[in-house]
Amino acid sequence: MNVETLREYCLSLPFATEDMAFGEDYLLFRLHNKIFACAGLTRTDYFTVKMNPDAAIEYREKYAEIEPAWHWNKKYWSQINLTGTLPDDFIRRLIIESYREIIIKLPKRQQPEILSALEEHPDWAR
Hints:
By secondary structure, the protein is of the alpha+beta class. 37% of the residues lie in helices and 24% in strands. The chain is built from four helices and six strands; from the N terminus they run H-E-E-E-E-H-E-E-H-H.
C-alpha cells in the first residue's frame, strides 16, 4: 500500500477528516477531531495508528513491520512499515481497528450516527 492509497482509505471512513496540524510533513486523519492515523509525506514508508494496548503488544511480537511509534505514546500508538510483507487487507484492518479505538472514546451520543454510517462500509464487518 502506498501513501495515496492509505489516504484514500482513511478518508473513505465516515466523518473522517484530514489536516496537517503537525506541519507540512505529516498528514493526520481524524474522527471528530481525534487522530486515528498519521502518514508522513517525506517518509512515506511508515504510518502511525492507534491500537488497543493488548493488541499492540500482540501485533508487535508477531509482525516485524509493526513497532512502537516514534514520538507517540508507545502504549497506544504503533508505526506500520508499508514496505514490508503485510498485505493491504491487513493494513486496512489496522486502520479500521484504530478508527474503532476512537469511536469507543467518543461520547455515547456521537456513536450511533457513526456506527450507522459504518454499516455501509465494506470493511466494517470484518
